[in-house]
Amino acid sequence: MDNKQLNSEHDLLLLVSQGDEAAFARLFHTYHQRLGAFVYQLTGSLSMAEEIVQEVFIRIWEKRDKLSQVSHFHSYLYTTAKNYTYSFLKKLGRELEHKQQWEMTIAADTGNPFEETMDARYRRIIDQAIAELPAQRQRVYLLSRDEGLRQAEIAERMAISRETVKKHMVLALRAIRSYALTHPETNLLLLLFFPK
């Protein structure tokens, strides 16, 4: 990128930081497709990628007063998107587990054999998906899910970097999601795409 382009982007960020909506729209149109492709690589879902990109730009607009201090917007944008995607996927995984626990509780309270059968299917499918993960990825996921360890604690326990732990968690959740989607009879599709 030459100095003219750098100055142009700097000027654009300055306008956005001052609340210029037209400049923000230009910034969005410049980056949203490339950022969407990047987020899609992390999530494997077009709809999820679209939602995350929209949310990332909303956050940038809400914190626009800081843009005048950003010297490398590309790095700033992609780091923001990557961090938000990790948080989004982790939250999705937690909500899936909470739904499964809730359904198991309902089944236990009602004694409904159909509910028990569905819960058993959920657990069986998730366990099968976990069993197919590479050994290190599986251990990272299970330390998070079963022992409730944070990423820093997992990194210390396994003697790997936090970035490696994050990568394993993202890939594990993506693999589990993909595996679950091959079993639509369990209605996991609804749990994955409509977590609320």
Class of secondary structure makeup: mainly alpha
Annotated CATH topology of the largest domain: Rna Polymerase Sigma Factor, Chain: A
- Distance N to C terminus: 43 Å
Our count of domains comes out at 2
Poorly predicted parts: 1-7, 186-196
What is the molecular shape?
elongated
Q: Helix segment count?
A: 9
Look at the structure and give the mean pLDDT.
78
Task: Tally the beta strands.
Answer: 0
Q: What is the CATH architecture term of the largest domain? A: Orthogonal Bundle
Assigned CATH class of the largest domain: Mainly Alpha
Give structural notes:
This protein has 196 residues and is mainly α. The protein has two domains: 9-92, RNA polymerase sigma factor, region 2, helix turn helix motif (Rna Polymerase Sigma Factor, Chain: A, Orthogonal Bundle); 132-195, Arc Repressor Mutant, subunit A, CATH 1.10.10. Helix content is 80%, strand content 0%. It contains nine helices and no strands. Helix 2 packs across helix 4 and helix 4 (73-110) crosses helix 8 (162-180). The N and C termini lie far apart (43 Å). Mean pLDDT is 78; it is low at 1-7 and 186-196. Residues 27-94 form the RNA polymerase sigma-70 region domain. Belongs to the sigma-70 factor family. ECF subfamily.
